[in-house]
Amino acid sequence: MAAWVIRSALLIQKWYRRYMARLEARRRCTWEIFQSIEYAGEQDQLKLYNFFNDMLQQMEPDKCGQPKILRALSVSKRPVSMDSLTLEAEDANIYRLSNPDAITVDPMYSGPHITFPMTYSQLQSLIQAIKSKQRLHVKYLLELLLETREELKKLGNINQATTSISHKITVCGDLHGKLNDLFMIFHKNGLPSVDNPYIFNGDFVDRGSNSVEIVIILFASFLLYPNEMYINRGNHEDHIMNIRYGFVKEINRKYTAHATMVLRLFEDVFSWLPIATLIDRKLLVVHGGISDTTSLSDIAKIDRHKFLSILHPPREDGDITKLTENEIMEWKTMLDIMWSDPRTQVGCTPNSFRGGGVYFGCNVTEAFLSKHQLQGIIRSHECKADGYEFCHNQKILTVFSASNYYEYGSNRGAYLKIVGRDLQYNLVQYSTTKASRRKITFTQRVSNFESSAIQDLREKILASRTQLVQEFEKYDKSVTGKVKVKEWCEVMEYVMRMDLPWRSLRSKLVKDDPGTDIMVLYHTMFDQYHLYHRYTGNGPTLTEMLYRNKDNLETIFRILDRDNSGQISMEEFEETIKMLIKHQGLKVPERDILDIAHSIDINKDGSIDFNEFLEAFRIVDHFGINRTRRRMDSNESVDFHSVNGSIRSVNVSPTDMTRKVSRKVSRRTSLNEIVEISASNKDNHILNDNSVKELSECD
């Protein structure tokens, strides 16, 4: 009897572990889809900007003949060297263009009021007003930015933080406009103060819908506690990135009448943010990472204010050939700090996945720490499923504070509390979710997460339909509509430029040939939906090209839209489309481009509402019903007294990490390994007991 009970228990355990392993495989596969789409977007941004730079270098300056878009892209660049007189003139110009005294506050304004110097009660009132969805008046916003600018100018490139008074410090990673996550951190950890210092490690803007409010709170806290509130620059505190990823659009929406002056001032303030923070001269906090050429002395010497955008070096007359070797190295250091990622490899290689910075190996980390007598590096920049991750023999810790970054249930957020003389790590995880979503199980969260990722991937596939079919037909000489599974995977990876487990995704995207399990019917990928744009008719080549470059188009349009009116001229629109067609190497009749432009200019005034053009793309089914996925609202209201699950803490000492985090490290099995395990007969060895316990805790 006892033996039968044991065998039954083992069988149930085997089934459960098999189920959980398959669920984990689905989650990781879904994660790779979202991450590949995100990084592909960043890579497109850099490629597009490099394309513009090449065009600028090839063309002679000509006020009459040079395309407007190239003139637009050649402004807002600072000279390579700036003396005191130049800085004074720039200060005067900043105050002249962003003068808050020229703006009056309407007597009917019911939002928060602030005066300087800031007080603690003002900070509390400001946060409460923002929680109540009240908007700070533009006059106060400009005053706040100008005051912050003056304080930031006093700081060096490397903040020197100490725990000698508070015996603790809190490090927060990327927030990306997710205001509820900031509120969660303050709710659980307290507001910044003399005995509760914080480091915010960049990327607090873009992607989310409340970037402005986050910046207001962080800068107000910094003005109140300049010696306890440390703010590092991230790769998204960059005007060119802001054009692409939402911050510029948010400013236009919230401060329409004064958007130009607000954006100009934000652009300048971001350039004054410090690059790194040292904690007790033992721990380095940077946004991205390091390279084999990075040194603290080089970081300290950078004239950071020159870099309005890190995507290009400062240059005079648009000619980067005038830069010296030292100036090029200065730019490279900025790129490496903001854009790099750690990897298991040895040495440094170009970060081809993102398009900027490097991948740096464990030996690079060890050499850097040894050279500067440091214990470890704390960085952000990468979304992690648990909100954090150790690597390089636990010498590098990634902290990411935006929960549900890709979709509900995609990841936890985390912040790091460093306490005591031995600088012990206390990692706190959380997730901000609406009450209605807390009742779903881990399985349901994975299913919802997977469904959203597949839908996003389908949209990318639809935008490349013509090219995909052309590549499939190279294998399908008889045009049967069938290719081998291996050939389908090769074409998908080649055309989509995404390193995904296509074989595992096959069942979600394409139908198998009923007669065999080694062939797929590639046209079935496009049976359910098709891409439509009401201004381009149904011409597949042009519509697909425009949809693939939708984000690039918006970037260019917003650069051209100097007055933030949401409109550009017919000439600018046509020129933009022509440049992108050239960039893509396509052959599209000029008549088609003109037809699009004239169809959008409804009132025939020569201006085009580019927001309307961009929003006219639809994924529709055979009945013409819109099936475009509604993106999640990243800032739904949250009851902070009943958080999704319990707050979880992990205590680690930086000098003794391996033993205490081995349970986390042991889970880092590759996706292919876990898929193979789940299909094998050794199901009782799929996941160790600790891993099953962790996964079951998520229900």
Please tell me about this protein's structure.
- The chain has 699 residues and is α/β, with parallel strands linked by helices.
- It folds into 3 domains: 76-103 and 116-434, Metallo-dependent phosphatases (Purple Acid Phosphatase, chain A, domain 2); 454-526, Orthogonal Bundle (Recoverin, domain 1); 530-620, Recoverin, domain 1 (Orthogonal Bundle), CATH 1.10.238.
- The strands form 6 sheets. It has a 6-stranded mixed sheet. It has a 6-stranded mixed sheet with strand order 4-3-2-13-14-22. Strands 7-9-8 form a 3-stranded mixed sheet.
- A hairpin with a 4-residue loop joins β11 (388-391) and β12.
- It is globular and about 75 Å long.
What secondary-structure arrangement, pairings included, does this model have?
Layout lengths: L1 H57 L9 H6 L10 H14 L22 H12 L6 H16 L4 E4 L6 E5 L6 H11 L8 E3 L10 H14 L4 E3 L7 H7 L1 H8 L4 H13 L4 E4 L3 E4 L9 H6 L23 H15 L1 E2 L5 E3 L7 E3 L1 H11 L3 E4 L8 E4 L4 E4 L13 E7 L4 E7 L11 H21 L2 H11 L6 E3 H12 L5 H8 L1 E2 L6 E3 L8 E4 L6 H9 L1 H11 L6 E3 H15 L5 H11 L6 E3 H5 L2 E4 L27 E5 L9 H4 L5 H9 L9 H9 L2
Parallel strand pairs: 1-5, 2-3, 3-4, 6-10, 7-9, 10-12
Antiparallel strand pairs: 2-13, 5-6, 8-9, 11-12, 13-14, 14-22, 15-17, 16-17, 18-21, 19-20
Helix pairs in contact: 1-14, 1-24, 4-7, 5-7, 5-10, 9-10, 15-16, 19-20, 20-21
Enzyme class: hydrolase
Catalytic activity: O-phospho-L-seryl-[protein] + H2O = L-seryl-[protein] + phosphate; O-phospho-L-threonyl-[protein] + H2O = L-threonyl-[protein] + phosphate
GO molecular function: calcium ion binding; iron ion binding; manganese ion binding; protein serine/threonine phosphatase activity
